[in-house]
Amino acid sequence: MLKDEPGTEEVPNVFQIMYSSMIHWTRLIAGGLALPLVFPWLVYNLYRSHFKNKIFRNRFLEDKVVLITGASSGLGEALAHAFHKAGTRVILAARRTDALEKVKKDLMEKYPSKNVPVVLTMDLLDLKKMPEKAKEALDIYGHIDILVNNGGISYRGEIADTDLDVDLRVMFTNYFGPVALTKAILPSMLEINSGFILAISSVQGKIAIPYRSAYSSSKHALQAFFDTLKSELNHTNIHVCVVSPGYVQTNLSLNAVTGDGKQYGVMDQATASGMNPDEVAENIIIATAAKRSELVLAGLLPKIAIWIRVVCPWLYFYMMGSRARRIRASNAIKQE
Question: Which family does it belong to (predicted)?
Fold first, then answer.
């Protein structure tokens, strides 16, 4: 019979042996590659869980002097709550004094403390007054332990239709303002060889997207400045951290400026469905206690986009071109 003929049963056995051998070697190679990464991964997670411990974190931050710009609303207000709750001495800075007083009252009502927040009226556009404002902040407690450069403004518009004055306003607020304040505070930190500087940038400081030119440019500049500062301060005990959040549920898009300088006044869907500002602030507190040098707070897709921009630029620009066409088509439909 055919099944009794020599060699008829060996053919499937050969494939089975080859398949088993491939699985064996794949597991062996994968295991060999993964094993060296297991220990660092465990150490990293233990390290992070240590700084997530609120008791340790609050002990580290207790009585530290924290200056927060843009503290009157949005993420700045959430950061004020997080730092005050951790026991720090918070200096609330922004343009609107009445809004800052409201935040101060809210902080003391929710978290009564011996450390009463201090209000400092400051306009990031007024660069000439920045040394004077920095001195005011330093005179309150004699030093600044943590500087949080959070204040800023967003933008929506097409490059071809945007006045140069709008580009200048966004760049001065988001870049030159934080730079001027940092330069004014830095000498006092260098004098005592201690301090922590936080720059709240954006995922758009790493990748540019259509119709955000002025905003993205200012955040790219911010990223570059604080990356450079980080390197130059490497020999000191002053730490620098650039935080790059994705979309956060704030009024940033409502208060954004358009190409002609008017207020955008629209809550973007992406912003409305973004991260909770309290959650973002909590992560920033952890990063501060852990003295991290960078923090990207975004979903998987923005992180993949950052990676694609680096390793496969043509694909990234194809994706952004498609995005621009969709937005343009959508705006054309709305205007009809």
Answer: Belongs to the short-chain dehydrogenases/reductases (SDR) family.
